[in-house]
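Researcher: We are triaging several targets before committing to wet-lab work. For this one, the compound of interest is flavin-adenine dinucleotide. I'm pasting the protein sequence and the ligand SMILES. What I need is the predicted three-dimensional arrangement of the protein with the ligand bound, expressed as structure tokens, so it can go straight into our comparison scripts without reformatting.
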Amino acid sequence: MGRGWEGVALKMMRGRDFELTVTAVEDVTAHCRRLRFADGGMLDATGVHPTLWVRLWFPNAGRPHQRAYTLVDPDPAGAAFSVDFALHDGPASRWASAATVGDTLQATVQGSAFAAPVPTPARMFLVGDRASAPAIASLLHALPDVPATVWLETQHDSDEHLPAARTGRDHHDVHLVPRENAGARLASQVRTALPELLGDPAEAYVWIACDTATTRDLARFVRRDLAVPKSRTHALGYWRS
Ligand SMILES: Cc1cc2nc3c(=O)[nH]c(=O)nc-3n(C[C@H](O)[C@H](O)[C@H](O)COP(=O)(O)OP(=O)(O)OC[C@H]3O[C@@H](n4cnc5c(N)ncnc54)[C@H](O)[C@@H]3O)c2cc1C
């Protein structure tokens, strides 16, 4: 399958390609499907870090369609990892809904990076939704002793069963916020609660990954209004509403 300009751009960024093979299919919730992949040598080349993501290539009416996805339970020794696909009406999501064991998918590694915040934050503030729930879970797992406040925007009742929503740890304070007005309810709730919880901005760590407009809005608020240093924030839009 030719990939057009997107593939060329990634190649110029030294993207490396791997073929993934589906080895297991599991429904995490009614709207989240987990696929386990044999990694085609990928983890050997990339190593593993929290929030690690890759670009996956999906068929879409004969045209290539590339979207980013986060690795869940990566196992370099077993050359395998999973991906939790939020299910909605999109080509990547539809592919995941129909995938069966033995199906293959191309992956391009562009250079996902993660720097653990130093010094270790007094508290982490994580804002996301189904798409970034795997990355949030990986952050909570990577910094297990750091207290965390999580705002998780939900689109379905079943989202409360996502792993990021049920960490089972007393020092993880998870707020489920139903998606309303294109993310405005989430933004409003964070804007109201965060200033009181933040403490010293230089000791906090604020990580934001929801739809692009909400992410941009909250990142501006955190950096400009709350004066959290750029080095103590991470903001990346995960999908376009
Ligand atoms: C670094 C990174 C890591 C990511 N990791 C994951 C991951 O692990 N799991 C995951 O599910 N997603 C993840 N995403 C988000 C995923 O790439 C997008 O949701 C993507 O748009 C899905 O592609 P699609 O082909 O299904 O839909 P598209 O063709 O992009 O969009 C089709 C329609 O679906 C809507 N849509 C797209 N995404 C969502 C959504 N999440 N919720 C509701 N409606 C949506 C769009 O607004 C549009 O109307 C990640 C994104 C980034 C940037």
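Researcher: Any quick observations?
Model: The domain at 4-109 is CATH 2.40.30.10 (Elongation Factor Tu (Ef-tu); domain 3).
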